[in-house]
Amino acid sequence: MGMGWIVSLAVAAIMTAIILSIAIPMDRRHVVREKGRIDYKKTVIYLRWNVFDTMTLSLAIYTIVCVQALNFLVSNGFTVENAYVQFFTNQSQVWTLVTILYLVSRVSITLKTIKERWGDDIGGV
């Protein structure tokens, strides 16, 4: 394993720890649970822009910068032997996947919340 991969894994571990240190307390403080299940009618955080959404937007921007840096390095002839190419390859893969998974889960949770609060026939159609 090259130096770029090792540094990238360390950076990913640190960023994951930061994300979890923000997400876990936010979940405990703002998500209403009854009998171990989320009560979507009483939980309002899913209908508002929150700190985690801002952090995810920042992560998406970081991912775009990593992909562009990787494109720049590869187009200038650097190969996977280069530590920077290794770093940006790993960062681009990890955070693209995390960002897409968060987007899908966020949309799903928001739609569940809307359905629980206002039912199936929103707008009386």
Automatic annotation (TrEMBL):
<feature type="transmembrane region" description="Helical">
    <location>
        <begin position="47"/>
        <end position="74"/>
    </location>
</feature>
<feature type="transmembrane region" description="Helical">
    <location>
        <begin position="94"/>
        <end position="111"/>
    </location>
</feature>
<feature type="transmembrane region" description="Helical">
    <location>
        <begin position="6"/>
        <end position="26"/>
    </location>
</feature>
<protein>
    <submittedName>
        <fullName>Group-specific protein</fullName>
    </submittedName>
</protein>
<keyword id="KW-1133">Transmembrane helix</keyword>
<keyword id="KW-0472">Membrane</keyword>
<keyword id="KW-0812">Transmembrane</keyword>
